[in-house]
Amino acid sequence: MTTDVRRTLEKQQYKMHGDHAAVKLCHWMQQSLLKGRTCYKQEFYGISSHRCLQMTPVVNQCTHNCLFCWRVQGFEATNVQWKGPEEILDHCIEEQRKLVSGFGGDPRCTREKWQESREPKHVAISLSGEPTMYPHLAGFIEVCHRRGMSTFLVTNGTLPEVLETLDPLPTQLYVTVAAPNEDVYKRLCVPRIKDGWEKLNRTLELLPSLDTRKVIRHTLVKDWNVGWEREYAKLDEKADPTFVEPKGYVFVGDSRRRMTIDNMPSPTMIREFSDRLGAELGMEVLKERRDSRVAVLGRPGAKLSLF
After folding, report:
1. pTM of the full predicted structure?
2. What's the confidence (pLDDT) of residue 37?
3. Tens digits of per-residue pLDDT, 138-178?
4. 306 assigned to some structural domain
5. Is residue 213, in this structure, part of any structural domain at all?
6. Contact at 8 Å (CB) between 293 and 281?
7. 150: which of 15, 124, 143, 171 fits an S-S bond (Cβ 3.0–4.6 Å)?
8. Cβ-count burial of 120 within 10 angstroms (0-12 exposed, 13-18 middle, 19+ buried)?
9. Dihedral Cα 51, 53, 54, 58, nearest 10 deg
10. Is residue 230 part of a domain?
11. 235-284 pLDDT tens trace
């Protein structure tokens, strides 16, 4: 990792461990502690926002350079000295406790909720980079589960060989499908590997065999990849996910260098896309959060909440 990239990450309140792992306080944790507003994942899946650890074991490496990504993009090939799973988890929890320390004295935050925030129960393995590039990912998930923590892994699906042998699997697995076809994929996701589209499709073909909850996330960018519901449906049918999440791009972070605010789809646009996709899949909108520009599709009567 270059000095400039590290400095930028630290300025944005990423707390680093070595040169590849990081934790960052989620916006929704702050909202939950101070205002009682929670992330859509709490409303959809029962994940307590104030007890969620947002981290990544691979902060600065990815197989994509997505135009809509709000994270810092300074990816380069390096000889990484990989830290062990237990060490990473301990460090991330320790740093998160430091990050929430100030909330303990804020009158808007109850003492009970603040104490709970210091003991995370859910680990969101996402934040930045492509987490399946971490060679000890299975070990990290195992450590989390052994400590009674649920895991939510978000991947771009370009390393199917990792998912094929991953044991244990995460509590919930997200695969981002941000393009309906290869042409849009190459222009919008800007793959850094030559066979990214083929590998993503291999991942989708693999998903039905994985014994865990699976979510296909369609990150939607106006004027780029909204529409094509029939093509998205064919990809989703291949994956046979538990749920499908159409989620709108938000004009924040480094994506502002490449996108405009007009590329944000409206909540109505997300809902209309979701209804059309659901009709193709035989699914229905189970819930939506218009303020987060997201909906979740599932089979009629499907149980959303994990807890």
Report:
1. 0.94
2. 95
3. 999 999 999 999 999 999 999 999 999 999 999 999 999 99
4. no
5. yes
6. no
7. 171
8. buried
9. -170
10. yes
11. 999 999 999 999 999 998 888 999 999 999 999 999 999 999 999 999 99
